[in-house]
Amino acid sequence: MEVASMNIKELSFGLFSTDEIKKLSVLEIDRVEIWDVLGNAFSGGLYDLRLGPNDQNDVCQTCGLGYIHCSGHSGHINLPVTVYNPFFFKELYKLLRGTCFKCYRILAPIVVLRLVSYQLQALDYGLVNTVQDLQEIATEEIRATSKEEAINKILNKLDKKFKDAVNEAQHCSQEMPHCESPKKKITRYNARLVFRDSAKSVASASSTSDFANKDLMPEDARKLLQWLWKNDNNFLSQFYRFLKSNNPNPVDVFFMDVILVPPSRFRKSNVFMDEKKSRPNNII
Ligand SMILES: [Zn+2]
Ligand SMILES: [Zn+2]
Q1: What predicted TM-score, i.e. pTM, was given to this entire model?
Q2: Of 13, 136, 188, 261, whose CB count within 10 A is highest?
Q3: How many Cβ atoms from other residues are within 10 Å of residue 153's Cβ?
Q4: How many Cβ atoms from other residues are within 10 Å of residue 246's Cβ?
Q5: Predicted confidence (pLDDT) per residue in 60-112, tens digit
Q6: Cα of 39 from ligand 2 centre, angstroms
């Protein structure tokens, strides 16, 4: 007898996209009620029999098998609006804080982006020494640049340093001369991202409306990240490995349009005095 075998060259983990969840799903859950007075599952509810049998007496309405043999089927819930994916919310916040909202590039000097990208790739090859060598080369380059500026005029350097620092705080990175956009700040309040324009200092702001807080809605944040991905996908896919996928818009992973509902057998209902009760984690 020949034993089937295969050599695994690569293994990767990913997340289902909205389309994949819908393909996997056997029904849309669109009913809040779960059980009727006789203890039967409502059609379209969280224990609809199309998601698999709920107990020994049921038959699956998708595959026709009983409780022992049906492995269960997934459903989905369509969300009325796009929301931030709670699993990646922290990462999304960090990424948005480091993004220029004018040119949709990462707010970092080109040398640094190139350095980190090469260092991450070097680690993939196990070239630990190269990571250090790259760091030294980059540091030398940065030092050389500073030296050149210093030779020009030592006194002016103090002025320049101060102006650069102020400029950097207010504008897109000076190493990106194509963009002199005022830098906008993102602040996080619980599960909200609030966007404010910090082009003017607090003292020079003519009215309080300059600082009016404005929510960054998930749909807008998604567009923004899609533009960022277009410009800096090389770096982003090195830095965030979960963005390496065949999905044309991998940054969609930061957002949710649908929720995958696992088969009923993996979230069994509680039975109390012959009455079925849904588990608290099922409540929509
Ligand atoms: Zn089934
Ligand atoms: Zn910019």
Answers
A1: 0.70
A2: 261
A3: 11
A4: 7
A5: 999 999 999 999 999 999 999 999 999 999 999 999 988 888 888 888 877 77
A6: 59
